[in-house]
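Lecture 7 notes: from sequence to structure.
We start with the chain below.
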Amino acid sequence: MTHEEWLSVTIEMAVENVKSGGGPFAAIVVRDGKIIGKGTNQVHVLHDPSAHAEMSAIREACEAQQSIDLSDCVLYASGEPCPMCLGAAYWSTVGHIYYSCSKQEASEEASFPNPLERYFTDQDLPGEQRLVPFIQVACENALEPFFEWQKTTGRK
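Predicted structure tokens for the same chain:
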């Protein structure tokens, strides 16, 4: 599968997660063409600020491999990972991170707040210059999870 196809999987997961009451984010960890970890944003469902999609996907992948070394894996995320998720990716030494919707796009085009962006200077660097390369792949439906999020009621 292509990077765009893997990212489309995460976007579809994120949309379904919003419809089920979760947040507009999803992530998968892929190794040798197979998903070994997946997760969706469950912050408000579980009342757990660490229940981010990437954290769950990394946790599941590490459990599947019985190792915290994901250097031969790729993390695909529907949205650009936050500092916490980036930290987990660094700790797991994930090989590459691909994401679809940037934090700027989510904030500016879909009105999704990003209060943490000012706290993490690495995320202010261009993707190719970060400690773990971030490569954005444009997907035509990348903002769909955020638009779905806007349609929900009772969100925080």
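Points to note: The first strand starts at residue 26 and ends at 31. Residues 71 and 95 are 4 Å apart (CA to CA).
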